[in-house]
Please model this.
Amino acid sequence: MARIMVLGATGSLGKHVTRQAVAAGHAVTALVRTPAKLPTDLRGKMTVVQADLATLPLAELSAAFRGQDAVINTAGLVTEGQAFVRLVDRLVTALESIPPGQRPVCWFMAGAGLLDIDDSGRRGVDLPKVGSTYGPHRVNFERIRATDLDWRELCPGPMVEGPALGIDKLRLSLDKLPVQMPTFVQHLPGALVLPFFALRIPQMIIPYADAAAVILANLAGDSAMSRHRVGLALPEGMRGKKGEWATRPGDPA
Model:
């Protein structure tokens, strides 16, 4: 059993992380602005701290993190731009203020665009149009990897509600896309790589439940995922649609 603090526990992914963590017997603390948004059946099974991550003094935020084995951040949206960057910076700063031997493992969220496309190190956020929306993920990653925290950053494609497949069925990768790109794309300019990248997004549309399960299965310190970006993809031959559950080719949509 681990002591886990979930940030953003009332959000789409946060609810799955919280529910699975409670079901697994972990000691869960949810730090949320509006406790009433938490599922009613879970409130009595965990510790609830009411606070606003954007305004909570850093000393209090750091104190809240102390004593936790893991801090899982599912709060913030990349579409919030600089507000999202400021949020992640505050979390990292609070974690850094904890003495090294007492720091929790920390999970952050990004997207598939943060993963390397090829051996050149080029990422999805380096491509035209992608960077204009998802650029905050790049800024956050640079902030996180400059630390000596035991961090991991989950980088799925779009996430959807739906039954879990099971993490044993997913394709997982470290730092690179979990789907195959043609080898010749490394020689192409970004504008010509973009269509190849876009065509592979449906393979990386993941159920929230599976994304939560991957996080909770990797809470141990200094694991294989430590200080890596983690990519997720559906099984070979399976694709999803944003806002809908995934289907295999030939299945009814």
